[in-house]
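Summary for the steering committee. The consortium agreed at its last meeting that each partner would contribute one worked example illustrating the joint modelling workflow. Our contribution is presented below. We chose a case with several input lines so that the handling of multiple components could be demonstrated. No manual editing was applied between input and output; the record is shown as generated.
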Amino acid sequence: MLEVRDLHVFYGNIRAVDGASLRVETGELVAIIGSNGAGKSTTLKSISGLLRSRSGAIVYDGRDITDESTDGIVALGISHCPEGRRIFGRLTVRENLILGGVQRPAAEARRDVELVGDTFPGLRDRMKQTGGTLSGGEQQMLAIARALMSKPRLLLLDEPSLGLAPLMVEHIFEVIEGLKRQGLTILLVEQNVHHALDAADRAYVMEAGRITVEGRADALRHDPRIEQSYLGL
Amino acid sequence: MSPRVAGPLVSILGLSVGLAVLDASGAAFWQGLVINLAIFTILVVSLNLTSGFTGVFSLGNIGFMALGAYISAILTLPLSVKSEYLPDLPPWLAGVHLDQMAGPLPVGWLAATLIAGLLVALVALLVGAVLMRLSGHFVAVATLGFLVIVRVILFNADGFTRGSRTFSNVTPYTNLWWAWAWALLVIYAVWRLKRSQYGRAMFAQRRDRWAAQSVGISILRPRLLAFVIGAFFTAVAGSLYAHFITSFSPTVFYFDLTFRVITMLVVGGMGSVSGSVIGTVVVLAVAEGLRRVEDVTLLYGLSGLLLAAFFIVIIIFRPEGIMGQREISFGRLAARLRSPRGGGGAEGAAAELP
Amino acid sequence: MGDYFIQQVVNAVSAGSLYALMAVGLALIFSILRLINFAHGDIMMVAAYLVTFALFAGMPLPAALVFMVVCTVVIGLLMERIAYRPIRGAAEVAMLLTSFAVGQILQNGTLLVSRLAGQPIQIAFPAPEIVSGVVAFGAITVPKVNIVSFVTGAVLLTLLTVFVTRTRLGLSMHAAAEDLSAARLMGIRVNRVVATAFAISSGLAAVAGFLYASQAGQINPYLGFTPVLKAFIAAVIGGFGSLSGAVIGAYALGFLEVIPTALSGIADILPPGAVPPDVHDLLARVFPSSLGSYRDAFVFVFLILMLLFRPNGIVGGRGREEVP
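What follows is the complete predicted structure of the assembly.
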């Protein structure tokens, strides 16, 4: 469904992504793991159009979206749930959700806002609360729910477990796996290797802007290279 | 002699010859233009110091010019004129008349200029201590507020300034030599400052406030220094202006002039002293040319409009101006002159400003 | 004595309404783009000229007003497209300076057109019936223009509030103001949101232009400079970026402004015997009749104090140590 070919992304003169290539097949959950500053988030931002790559190609359903605008990319069915959640703290939960569906017809979107409570029961009672008053875990739920409002076919999830307590992280990954079961294609960026590899079908390891390892998740789980880098063994 | 020393010397020599010729020619219009050029150069270079080096935009500099103009003019008015023209001056001021000459040297005027400069620098110290803590557009607007406040005060302190009425009878001390002597002094001083540790501190905190602070470079001190010194020189420009145009009122020292100076600064390049000189020449030339067109076609407002459009074009397409933060290097110029690129020859020297 | 104070209050409210219309426009654009649009005052000026020329041409008032608003909005949109969009994301000061340049273009352009139309620099405004003359409320007379200013301001601001809180486009503007990147990820078309902000802002400025001309009685190409500064001050007082804050700040400013005017010459206004003679003398010395003309300086000193001590406005508290 999605293919990234030889992507090079720069921040000014600093190379953040150095010739990365990856692919995501329909229905898969693909994880990108790696330490801080490896270029994982930058890759996602290039896919969703927040950043312009200097060279390389991003192809979605056979269509080149490398230079597409963010709103065009959302219209095509890709939704990016950003790092740090970035919910609108001054707006209510309901308003956040409405904004998630801003590109869809108003009536449909409003209906879906009511249905959000089914997948995310924690949000159902908090519709009128402002985003800034939610806990970290609830904010993450809201961010994901909001990203789903545009009815995407591909969800880009950036570090959903960041800053959350272990119990919350479990919960989040339950939700993520539930979404996968419903048929959503997901590209997940995570520092939490354990959970990421549990949930994913395939994974890529990114280091200093390059893809260094790729393979099926269960194989990678026991890969000595991973164990070395992340578990310090 | 190294090109670094020879270059400026040759330029100054050339300038002196040019001024002498102009002086002797008696062409009042061109003399006026060249004096204007000097005054604007001082204004632009000073603003560069205050804002271009530090990145802290002050829109109130013309307020300092106004104060410099009025203070120096009040001081130099001869006694006889003073009592008639400014009858309401307080006694301690009414007796002062800095119009003494020592032979050909107008020492009274020089003293008045220095006094005005120092007083204005003091004002700048007080104002700057308060305002230089702000950043970005907030300091821009706060300093704009200062400009408005100065104007209101000048309009209201009729006893000193004659309020909204024209202040005239100022002795025309300013001539080509004095104007350019001061201009060269200012250029030199600011250029030296740029290369000193103070200058480096100014640029450092411009680039990254927090990084500069974390290595112990104070934020307030370089900004305040730049602000105060810039104010001093701007006040000098005010004195030069007052004694050139010999009659003025508070309306001159307001937004149009401010914007004109800013345009010159941006065109030349914020952070480059040589850029300021170049920017001043370019914009003044364009402005004069456009003013001729206005006079001929009676389309008043055209020059202002086109200059503003020019400004926007520069900001969009070349925001760093002509020179950016670089300076003309005579060393490199000389090297080019000595070994021109193949086929180029003389065209190398003028085009290849490093 | 009572009359005098009522008059001051009326003046304050009237000026406040004008500032509110301007300040909200400024705050709207600033909240999304971080741009202080100094050309805002000149937009208002252009609107005043447009309606003046329309009235001179014999258009009935409603048509002239529509003409004024439509043309002003178009100019505002053009201004955004040509001058501001290319530098979006540039340094704040660059954007501020550009807004000055745009203002200069509008001022000089108006000067040119006005002269070509054979008009003097200062033109007397042909005030329509609705804003001329006074209305009597018992013993008090209030100029009609003040009432119109207040009512218009209230109505427009209410409409704006409804728009911003109830519609998706309005909500998008909120979102864009809070977090532009996240807003883009929702699929919000930033260009459209920005254009809407400029359109609304210009429309409000246009109405403010009409009210200003009605209040001042004459127009000139430079009339926009001081109002935009005042609008800026109002927005800062209310906590820059917040629309409701801008409105509060605007009315606060209206009242703040009348203080020097009200106090000036207060010694003369007080009925004889109301205060002991030495207090009377003190008042005369501290608040001389000329104090009123220091009004603008007074307002700016207040602005500087606010920027230093309460950069987040009256409501906002001390905020961070430096305003970015």
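The mean pLDDT of chain C is 82. The interface with chain B takes residues 36, 83, 86-87, 90, 92-94, 96-98, 100-102, 104-105, 107-112, 115-116, 221, 225, 229, 232, 290, 293-294, 296-297, 300-301, 303-304, 307-308, 311, 322-324 of chain C (CB under 8 Å).
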